[in-house]
């Protein structure tokens, strides 16, 4: 009730303000002299529902340390690992799917319409069955909404009932099932599933998936007057799903009958030249044949033609021929006024920068051409440019300055929309960070690292290894606490190689208390060592069949506890070494055993020191004799202890 009263008060205030402004405008107009100046009403600018939010966002800029808006703004709820980000995003979308499913299944409970005019997207979808009464308009609506399976069902019902379908509707239906190969596509509403699925789809092997003898071919064959559009639709659909033999046969049939084909159809045939011929020269001859046919029929090429040719050149097989054809084609299309898209430059990159070929600096020329420009999606392969360019910067040229130029281009305008999907984004930053880690000064690299990790990019195990190695090389142990926290949140604590590298860095670079920012490191190192020990114990209990204790890692932890003055924890680790000796993989270092023995001597614990000595002697450590001699000279031992030490180090024991 209070909210209703408040709303009414706000509405009254709004009416008062509007009325006052209108009166002021009327007075101003009546007072001003008459003029013959024509009032030009500007054209309406189309706005999306989020344009206001984008405008507000542009005023404050992007915070690189902030998590993506889809995650809850709470440090305890923001996922950091790759699997966490994926699970959170898909779980959130799964909730929306569940809500839609409930609305669809129990549609009778959702009759309340709150919008006027009615918004169809807010209503449950119509359900069609074999008993549904349908009309041609239903089929047209389903085609418009890209509901492939429902459209096929309604078409079959219309055919079964003997209802006529116009040629225009039949052609649109043929376009739908040819483009989608008779299968439902993922709804545009499911953004997260598209984001995470696209990378998996891109890795699938290209193979023939066209459904031979299916509804599309039946409709086409039943057409009495096969129009140019019908031929174009079938040829493009077959070429898209790699039914190349039938596509080429239809292409030849159309030419023989004098049927005009459009540019997109020629482009689809050019793009599959490499699947039609085995030899590089034959492939190029076939592509030229398609181009000559286009010229004879006055069909103008477009950007799709350029990209289809460049795609063919990228896998010709002959490096010399491919590079020559690529450069000539780019020059020719430039004369025609056709500007390359990012997909065009992607094909140029994979043509010139082969893994086993000569080093090419073509990326520099490309960046000189497109730097500072903002691009829109024009080809599905546009999303491959940035990830390929960064891969070349790292693995082909090893050039960090060029990588920075590529990254600046990515963040120009709306170019980040062309990063592609989660898989490509991850590879892009993997290559960028790997290159910067090896070539940048450590302080500059860590600043770069902190900008990206963990909200924008979660480093893979290989990259984290490189970062740890860089810290070890530079002795920059002040970064160890941060990196350890990242190993924990990225769930890398089960990786022995990373833990060993982290621990070795702490061992080889003890804190220097004369340096101010090292003051807290001893305590932090002790905490890190304790956490590693606890997590290893937890793993051994939760995964007894999979987990194996590593003697080398335990020895390193033992050494760190000795340095940190943690005698009880050091003793626990030694006891684990002693009891689980036969279950260990590897052995502790001699330095760790020697450090523990000296620690026992300092703590006046002769029995524990003798146990350490016995372990060293039995496992063949030459340092054992030194430990025994120090025991005899430093501690006051009783007769039994003294005789045991002498026997262990090989000294004669008086009877």
Could you describe the 3D structure shown?
Among the domains are: 122-186, no CATH class; 226-339, Serine Threonine Protein Phosphatase 5, Tetratricopeptide repeat. The protein is built from 31 helices and no strands. The chain is mainly α.
In terms of DSSP E residues, the strand content is under 5%
Count of alpha/pi helices:
31
Per CATH, which architecture of the domain at 226-339?
Answer: Alpha Horseshoe
- The CATH class assignment of the domain at 226-339 is Mainly Alpha
Main sheet properties: none
Q: What is the general shape?
A: elongated
If you consult CATH, what is the topology of the domain at 226-339? Serine Threonine Protein Phosphatase 5, Tetratricopeptide repeat
Q: Which structural category fits the helices and strands? A: mainly alpha
Low-confidence stretches: 1-7
Global Rg:
36 Å
Overall pLDDT level: 87
Please report the distance between the alpha carbons of the first and last residues: 102 Å
CATH homologous superfamily designation of the domain at 226-339: Tetratricopeptide repeat domain
**Could you tell me the number of beta strands?**
0
Provide the descriptors you would attach to this structure in a database record:
single chain, 655 residues, mainly alpha, Serine Threonine Protein Phosphatase 5, Tetratricopeptide repeat, 31 helices, 63% helix, disordered N terminus
Lay out the secondary structure:
Layout: H1 2-31, H2 51-60, H3 82-105, H4 136-144, H5 148-160, H6 167-179, H7 191-202, H8 215-222, H9 228-240, H10 244-256, H11 263-270, H12 273-276, H13 280-296, H14 303-314, H15 319-335, H16 342-352, H17 362-370, H18 385-397, H19 400-410, H20 422-439, H21 442-452, H22 461-474, H23 480-489, H24 496-508, H25 521-542, H26 551-563, H27 567-579, H28 590-602, H29 606-618, H30 623-634, H31 639-649
Helix pairs in contact: 3-7, 4-5, 4-6, 6-8, 6-9, 9-10, 9-11, 11-13, 11-14, 14-15, 14-16, 16-18, 17-19, 18-19, 18-20, 20-22, 22-24, 24-26, 25-26, 26-27, 26-28, 27-28, 28-29, 28-30, 29-30, 29-31, 30-31
């Amino acid at each position: 009730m209070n909210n209703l009263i408040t709303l009414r008060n706000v509405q009254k205030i709004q009416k008062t303000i509007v009325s006052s402004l209108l009166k002021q405008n009327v007075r101003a107009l009546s007072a001003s002299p008459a003029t013959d100046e024509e009032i030009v009403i500007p054209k309406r600018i189309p706005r999306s529902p989020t344009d206001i939010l984008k405008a507000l966002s542009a005023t404050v800029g992007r915070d690189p340390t902030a998590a993506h808006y889809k995650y809850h703004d709470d440090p305890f709820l923001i996922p950091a690992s790759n699997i966490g980000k994926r699970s959170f995003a898909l779980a959130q979308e799964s909730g929306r799917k569940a809500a839609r499913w409930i609305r669809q299944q129990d549609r009778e409970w959702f009759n309340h319409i709150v919008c006027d005019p009615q918004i169809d997207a807010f209503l449950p979808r119509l359900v069609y069955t074999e008993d549904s009464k349908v009309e041609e308009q239903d089929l047209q609506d389903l085609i418009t909404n890209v509901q492939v399976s429902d459209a096929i069902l309604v078409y079959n019902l219309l055919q079964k009932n003997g209802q006529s379908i116009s040629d225009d509707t039949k052609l649109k239906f043929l376009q739908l099932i040819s483009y989608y190969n008779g299968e439902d596509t993922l709804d545009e509403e499911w953004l997260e599933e598209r984001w995470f699925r696209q990378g998996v789809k891109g890795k699938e092997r290209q193979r023939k998936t066209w459904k031979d003898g299916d509804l599309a071919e039946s409709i086409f064959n039943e057409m009495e007057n096969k129009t140019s559009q019908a031929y174009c639709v079938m040829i493009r659909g077959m070429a898209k799903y790699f039914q190349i033999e039938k596509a080429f046969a239809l292409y030849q049939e159309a030419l023989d009958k004098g049927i005009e084909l459009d540019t997109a159809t020629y482009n689809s045939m050019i793009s599959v030249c490499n699947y039609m011929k085995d030899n590089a020269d034959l492939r190029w001859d076939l592509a030229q044949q398609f181009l000559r046919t286009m010229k004879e029929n006055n069909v103008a090429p477009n950007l799709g033609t350029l990209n289809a040719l460049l795609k063919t050149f990228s896998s010709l097989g002959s490096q010399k021929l491919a590079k020559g054809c690529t450069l000539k084609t780019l020059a020719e299309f430039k004369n025609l006024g056709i500007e390359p898209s990012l997909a065009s430059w992607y094909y140029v990159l994979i043509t010139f920068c082969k893994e086993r070929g000569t080093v090419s600096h073509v990326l520099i020329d490309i960046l000189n051409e497109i730097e500072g420009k903002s691009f829109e999606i024009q080809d599905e392969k546009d999303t491959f440019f940035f990830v390929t360019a960064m891969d070349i910067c790292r693995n082909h040229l090893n050039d960090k300055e060029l990588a920075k130029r590529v990254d600046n281009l990515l963040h120009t305008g709306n170019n980040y929309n062309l990063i592609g999907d989660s898989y490509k984004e991850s590879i892009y930053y993997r290559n960028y960070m790997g290159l910067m880690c090896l070539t940048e000064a450590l302080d500059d690299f860590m600043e770069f690292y902190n900008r990206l990790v963990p909200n924008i990019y979660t480093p893979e195990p290989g990259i984290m290894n490189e970062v740890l190695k860089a810290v070890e090389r530079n002795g920059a142990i002040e970064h160890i606490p941060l990196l350890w926290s990242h190993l924990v949140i990225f769930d890398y604590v089960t990786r022995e190689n990373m833990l060993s590298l982290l621990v070795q860095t702490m061992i080889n670079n003890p804190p220097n208390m004369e340096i101010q920012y090292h003051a807290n490191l001893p305590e932090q190192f002790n905490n890190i060592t304790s956490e590693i020990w606890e997590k290893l114990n937890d793993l051994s209990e939760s995964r007894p069949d999979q987990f194996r204790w590593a003697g080398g890692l335990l020895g390193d932890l033992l050494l760190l506890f000795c340095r940190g003055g943690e005698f009880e924890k050091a003793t626990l680790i030694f006891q684990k070494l002693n009891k689980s000796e036969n279950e260990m993989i590897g052995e502790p270092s001699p330095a760790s055993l020697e450090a523990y023995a000296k620690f026992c001597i300092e703590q006046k614990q002769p029995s524990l020191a003798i146990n350490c000595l016995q372990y060293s002697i039995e496992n063949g450590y030459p340092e054992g004799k030194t430990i025994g001699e120090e025991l005899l000279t430093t501690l006051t031992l009783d007769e039994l202890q003294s005789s045991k030490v002498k026997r262990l180090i090989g000294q004669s024991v008086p009877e």
